Amino acid sequence: MTTQPTPETLTELKINDALKQKVMDAYVPNDWPIMVGYVDEQGRPGMSYRGSLVVVSETQLGFWARNGEGGTVSALPKNANLTIAYREPTPDHARSAAVVTFRGKGRVVDSGDLRDQVYDTMPQRERDADAEKKGVAVIVDLDSVTGFIPGYRLQMTK
């Protein structure tokens, strides 16, 4: 019987290279859109698939909202709390190779370098979907990251 090595538990809120690679490769090349959960203006939970999620810094994620007045963006002024779910299936889809939940506060960035960074970093097919760059960036200042990726248990909090 072969035993698996005990994964390292990460507690400091800091996106490492392994986790960054998972996020950056989720949609392209793997076709695994990431889910963003929010609470709409009427207090109802909402979910949105995102192919544009990128790592902005060690404690921030960003995604592109092609519709700057859509559900996720419209919800942020009243409730900035976001939950972002990543799941990587095993090749046979029988279980998960990685599951990560990011929680944080979202804010809209509609101009400047940070907006450009999100747009320029997201996959080309997402940029092509808003070639005129009419959307806005949403920056998520993380409060916690939990779950697991190969080699790591994630229990990171501010």
Annotated CATH topology: Pnp Oxidase, Chain A
Question: Can you name the CATH architecture?
Answer: Roll
The percentage of residues in β strands lies in: 35-45%
- What order do the SSEs take from the amino end to the carboxyl end, as H and E? EHEEEEHEEHHEE
Per DSSP, the total helix count is: 4
Given this structure, which CATH class is correct?
Answer: Mainly Beta
Q: If you had to describe this structure to a student in words, what would you say it looks like?
A:
The termini are far apart. Strands 1, 2, 3, 4, 5, 6, 7, 8 and 9 form a 9-stranded mixed sheet that branches. The protein is globular, with a radius of gyration of 16 Å. With 158 residues, the protein is of the alpha+beta class.
Features:
158 residues; alpha+beta; Pnp Oxidase, Chain A; nine-stranded mixed sheet; 4 helices; globular
Describe how the helices and strands are arranged.
Elements: E1 8-12, H1 17-25, E2 34-39, E3 45-50, E4 54-57, E5 60-65, H2 71-75, E6 81-89, E7 96-109, H3 113-121, H4 124-129, E8 136-149, E9 152-157
Parallel strand pairs: 1-9
Antiparallel strand pairs: 2-3, 2-6, 4-5, 5-8, 6-7, 7-8, 8-9
What's the short story on this structure?
By secondary structure, the chain is of the alpha+beta class. The protein is built from 4 helices and 9 strands.
